[in-house]
Specification:
The chain is of the alpha+beta class. The chain folds into 2 domains: 34 residues; 73 residues, no CATH class. It is 39% helix and 22% strand. This is NTF2 fold domain-containing protein.
Length: 119
């Protein structure tokens, strides 16, 4: 006895199985969401924003002698604009026309939005 794969009964069984698997997969995705950012965001204050920016800068320039976290906290400023922390140098050297570092971080999940380094 062979199954007729074109019969309406067989087609209905396949549709039910497909729908069940699709729904089960969608519900598992919601249940297995192991992390979601807190409502106030993961970068909550300027000290954390500056420390994260320092870690990013240090990882980009591993061979340079970098100042300590305390020096970074003193030389950098962090300003929150909506969901973006803008970390930049507090003041540029005397006589400079421009240049400096700015690292923008998303306060909600910690992503790097952009890094601007000018000379």
């Amino acid at each position: 006895m062979s199954a007729n794969v074109t019969s309406p009964k067989f087609t209905c069984i396949w549709l039910v199985l497909f729908a069940a698997l699709f729904c089960a997969d969608a519900s598992l995705a919601k249940e297995n969401s192991w992390w979601s950012p807190p409502p106030q965001g993961v970068i909550r204050d300027k000290v954390a924003a500056i420390s994260i920016a320092r870690a990013i800068w240090t990882s980009m320039n591993p061979s340079r002698d970098e100042p300590s976290d305390e020096e970074w906290q003193g030389n950098m400023i962090a300003v929150r604009d909506g969901n973006i922390w803008r970390v930049s140098e507090r003041k540029l050297p005397a006589g400079s026309i421009g240049g400096g570092l700015e690292i923008d971080l998303d306060a909600r999940d910690g992503r790097v939005v952009q890094i601007v380094f000018t000379q």
